[in-house]
Write a structure and sequence with these properties.
The structure is a homodimer. The first copy, chain A, contains 9 helices and no strands. By secondary structure, chain A is mainly α. Chain A is elongated and about 60 Å long. The termini of chain A are far apart. The structure holds a DNA duplex.
Chain lengths: ~190, ~190
Amino acid sequence: MDRRQQKTQKAIFKAFIALLSEKSFSRITVQEIIDKADVGRTTFYAHFISKEALLKALCEELFSHIFRSTSASVPEHGLYSDDSVPDSVFCHLLQHLKKNDNNILALLSCSDNEIFLSYFRENLNSLVHSLLKTQIERRNDIPQDFLVNHISGSFVEMVLWWIRDNLRESPERLDRYFRAVIEPIL
Amino acid sequence: MDRRQQKTQKAIFKAFIALLSEKSFSRITVQEIIDKADVGRTTFYAHFISKEALLKALCEELFSHIFRSTSASVPEHGLYSDDSVPDSVFCHLLQHLKKNDNNILALLSCSDNEIFLSYFRENLNSLVHSLLKTQIERRNDIPQDFLVNHISGSFVEMVLWWIRDNLRESPERLDRYFRAVIEPIL
DNA sequence: AAATATAAAAAACAAACTGTTCATTACAAA
DNA sequence: TTTGTAATGAACAGTTTGTTTTTTATATTT
């Protein structure tokens, strides 16, 4: 890819992230983005057809990154299948989030966060789904779909709660709480 | 209140709800609202200072209604404290949602639903909080806050899942699933 | 190094939306 | 009936959006 393109893309992403930590997505204008990124109006539209497309591209970037590194880290054993394993996939995820690469926490907590959340949920869902497949016992009184949704949904809600609480709890303790409400139902 | 005011308010709300079931909040313009409601531009701004204020007013309307009727219906016994009670507060809520008064389901499922969801969560939170107070046993290994958030959060996620699934499951069965994942941790 | 291709820029544009003002008309309540 | 208040229509300046066109700057290829 042309070095010039990379430069402008990077500038636009950076400006966009900075703006997102200031104000909600819907209040951000293309004008502000190109002002802050210091690129021409034409240039912006050559890269992204709209503000929404930019948001989507950003989401794909960030979440594919965080989830690739997470699911690669603990692939072999299932969801909380072994108590002796100290760090679950979830703990890894929380630790990753706490590091706050690329301001991902700011994005998840901003007021127009629905799009981020849907990406978060989607990625979590497939993660939980694949983890549950390795689980031996299965409940036959609850649909698998419901269970998957419950687990990933609860996790999302927990993260939001965590953020609202300014990350006061440690990832490890949070993971322990999460185990306490998830393990009994498996 | 002046009959004229009631009339325009009603027209605006109605137009707004109709538009929300067509497209997301951010794509709706004031222009469209006043066109559909057939009121003057000046009139709209005399009632609501912005599109956002209208949304807020609508949320307050709808949720205060649904939650007042719900929490009034089952005030005396706690959250799933008695297995012999067939219909929990949650079952009531689900049934209420299924009736879909004022298109509340459309609002919860539209793509810009963050504001609706925050109202939903908020109301649920205080409901769960008050229900847990009547619960005798308490876990001392998990903070009460976490538990409340987990329960109401899971419920919200379940409803979203339900909506995505086009309300295929009955409220009663959904309530059973929810019991199965919540009761074990109480 | 020169030639070619491609990205960025600046300016200008119509179209749409916003939020406000003001004068006029219609309606409700006393 | 009179008086107050709500609704209306038109016009407005200011933004924002997405596009076009021309020119300039920078990579890539030979």
